[in-house]
Amino acid sequence: MSASPADLIVTGCTVLVHDGDERIAFREDAAIVVREGVIEAVTTAAAAADLPATERIEARGQVAMPGLVNCHTHAPMVALRGLAEDLPTEEWFNDVVWPVESNLTGKDVELGARLACAEMIRGGVTCFADHYFHMDVVADVVTECGMRAHLGEAYFSSQGPRGRERSLEFALGHRGAAGGRITTALAPHAPYTVTDADLTATAELARAHGLPVHLHAAENRDQTDTSLARHGVTPVEVLDRTGLLDTDLLVAHGTGIIERDLPLLARTRGRTAVATAPRGYLKFAWPGTTPVRALRAIGVPVGLATDGAASNNSLDVWESMALTSLIQKSTEGDPRWLTSRQALHHATLQSARAVGLGGSIGTLAPGRRADIILVDLTGPHTRPVHDLAATLVHSARSADVRTTVVDGRVLMRDRELLTLDVPAVVGELDRRLPALIDRSHGRRIQEYDT
Known about the structure:
Blueprint: E1 6-18, E2 24-35, E3 38-44, H1 45-48, E4 53-58, E5 62-66, E6 68-73, H2 89-101, H3 106-122, E7 125-132, H4 135-145, E8 148-155, H5 161-174, E9 182-188, H6 196-209, E10 213-217, H7 221-231, H8 235-241, E11 249-253, H9 262-266, E12 272-276, H10 278-283, H11 292-297, E13 302-304, H12 309-312, H13 317-332, H14 340-354, E14 372-376, H15 388-395, E15 401-406, E16 409-413, E17 416-417, H16 422-436
Parallel strand pairs: 1-4, 1-5, 6-7, 7-8, 8-9, 10-11, 11-12, 12-13
Antiparallel strand pairs: 1-2, 2-3, 5-14, 14-15, 15-16, 16-17
Helix pairs in contact: 3-4, 3-16, 5-6, 13-14, 14-15
């Protein structure tokens, strides 16, 4: 290690690490040395005791983990949290969400993004994959608040060629922004709102410019059944015939993936990933969930997500981790699947891979970006600890995250947000809500008809 002072040393904690076979392990009484936004070493607390550092965090009784990744969300939709409740998917879109989204301004998106980033930082999320509108504004918020993000400007074919062009312009213009903390993707909405011609053009653009693609597909079984009835192909088969399975692809939800889709996904050799957001599936009473076990068996990474707070009411990836484990046990009828250690793998390395960042985040190891969260396990609901992995997945809560670090910069310390002013955001957003939620105009940005 260098003789000059480290930028940050976190010491005295238990560190979640991955061994050579990517299995979850824990190093006790450890320390993490950070220099220029990168983890220089994971060592013992004793070895780090006399090392000079510009900033030092004593973390006794805490677990250091890789920052969580929200692999699919619509961050500014926190402004719609609780607006459309207890509705089937079609009514939720057509009667509430898409009429309200026709009112969106860049300022609404900015305030929603600020509030969402504050919520995620407090919940230990250091990176999120966002799929929404006015994405240049979201990029500005990410730059300012210090998070990491994978951003895509969403578009529908109903917008004409300009929608796809804007998505490309954003992706090329912001790729590598915020000192490399921003990565970008092309973001067609879904096969049921984007034509085959536009999906094919998107795939061609992705290959030409080296861009990934982030979209919704096979969100639920109804969409798959409708696609089969109308077109004779599943949504995944649409992705195949339009060339999208030949790109680096992030598919949101995938609860409608069926057995005939698996060979196609297997041939992508891990270039296709799926994001699962189980809380929303329960709220919409969808009959199934993401087939995590089948996807994992064919080498498709499955990352954890929340979707937008308009459907999920929360951006709590911690909850997504616990729900994924529980729902998978129930769905598979097997208490030995999904184990706590497997759930932590999905929350860390697999989520990083899902957003194309598996080589830089997702594990606390030398050479990785210093995206670190500290989880306090001294509360009564986490004691005693017989199985640390189970305690983290099934007993700990997002509110137990004490400190959040991205690229070596502390964004929250001892539950205090350092880069966002939540009261100011909430006050301004509250003043704008009447105009935002007005539906008297009768407009919709799109029609949900799968």
